[in-house]
Design a protein that fits this description.
Mean pLDDT: 89
Distance between the termini: 17 Å
Number of strands: 25
CATH topology: AttH-like fold
Structural class: mainly beta
Helix content: under 10%
Strand content: over 45%
CATH architecture: Beta Barrel
Shape: globular
């Protein structure tokens, strides 16, 4: 999962156009003449489903990882969003923004103690931004993320303040989340997405900052997800982890939190071992998130549980942030304020892996 929208900001009509996420429990969402298709169980078909699904309301390719840099590791996050806006599809104008492409990039450097970040937004078309339906290929101006014929990925992000370029090579099969890629997000069947992950990506990266170039290997995690209706109307937001374990395992877990106090609306986890293609999934009662430490943003005053204890079945994991201030304010593009942080994972007091913790809805409930 990835942060979508929420929180205070500029003109709400502009935010809704920039980033339209359906949160109502309709089986088929219609707005402004646009009818968004339902998400229902179906087999995912590759390579087609690596590509874009422009009929659906929202979609993202979301890659997080760690670089084994010297003298200390760095985190990085790259996300490309595609959203179908409520503009009438019969509008013939080439300038009508039927599809928007939004991109975020961030470097987590503990020496800096804050994220180095940039963002972009543009309507699809005119060769400036778009997303292929045939396979993973999404671009916005000179930012690009593409899948090659051998299954690897190439990314180029010439951002303000840094230039990040990397290749990411799969070392394991795709991980289909939920039931064969149909991922529930609530008690109602329409509260769902199509969702697969590519954990344990072997990365070779080149990062240029302030005229200096660093080359480093690393490990990354890719999520690709698309939907038309996602969250229950009572949802505040979510907590999510994608963790590459040191033994080669892959751990996903999330909870959908309520706006009011009480148990989560929904929770889920999956764990795939290092030597088996089989994925063990966990039902809501088997997944539990508990805060261990909180951090208050000096900018938004949002309070985030930046370290958490996460129970998955009979195992208990703990997250620890690379550093506390990994808040992203994307009100200029996606409309959301959220925490997206490089984090270590431990089990039984021992380091078990690394990945990212994402938390939305703490600055304000997620809403249109």
């Amino acid at each position: 999962m990835s942060a979508l929208r929420g929180g205070p900001g500029p003109d709400p009509r502009r935010r809704a156009l920039l980033f339209a996420l359906a949160m109502a429990p309709a089986w088929r969402w219609a707005e402004g003449g646009v009818v968004y298709p339902e998400v229902r169980p179906r087999p995912l078909v590759f390579p087609r489903d690596h590509g874009a699904h422009p009929d659906y309301r929202i979609e993202w390719w979301y890659l997080t990882g760690w670089l084994d840099a010297e003298p200390r590791p760095l985190g990085f996050q790259i996300t490309f969003f595609r959203t179908r806006t409520p503009i009438d599809p019969e509008n013939p104008s080439r300038f009508a923004a039927h599809q928007l492409i939004i991109a975020h990039a961030a470097i987590a450097d503990p020496e800096r103690g804050a994220l180095l970040k940039d963002e972009r937004v543009a309507r699809a078309g005119f060769g400036l931004a778009g997303a292929s339906e045939a396979d993973t290929e999404v671009w916005l101006d000179r930012w690009s993320f593409r899948r090659s014929g051998d299954g690897g990925y190439a990314c180029a992000i010439p951002a303000r303040g840094f230039d990040l370029r990397f290749t990411a090579r799969p070392t394991q099969p795709l991980l289909l989340q939920g039931t064969d890629g149909f991922s529930r997000k609530g008690p109602e069947i329409e509260q769902a997405s199509y969702y697969y992950s590519q954990p344990q990506l072997a990365v070779e990266a080149e990062l240029t900052r302030e005229g200096k170039t660093l080359r480093a290997p690393g490990r990354a995690w890719l999520d690709h997800e698309w939907s038309s209706t996602l969250l229950d109307p009572a949802a505040a937001g979510w907590d999510w982890i994608g963790m590459n374990l040191d033994d080669g395992s892959a751990l996903t877990a999330f909870q959908i939190r309520r706006r009011e106090s009480g148990p989560p609306i929904y929770a889920y986890a999956s764990l795939r071992g290092p030597d088996s293609p089989q994925v063990h999934t966990f039902a809501p009662p088997e997944v539990d998130f508990e805060p261990l430490a909180r951090w208050t943003s000096p900018r938004t005053r949002a309070v985030y549980p930046v370290a958490q204890s996460i129970r998955v079945g009979d195992r208990v994991f703990e997250t620890q942030p690379l550093f506390e201030d990994q808040e992203l304010d994307s009100r200029g593009s996606a409309g959301a304020i959220y925490w997206e942080g490089a984090s270590r994972l431990s089990e039984g007091g021992r380091l078990a892996g690394r990945g990212y913790l994402e938390m939305t809805g703490y600055a304000a409930p997620m809403r249109l």
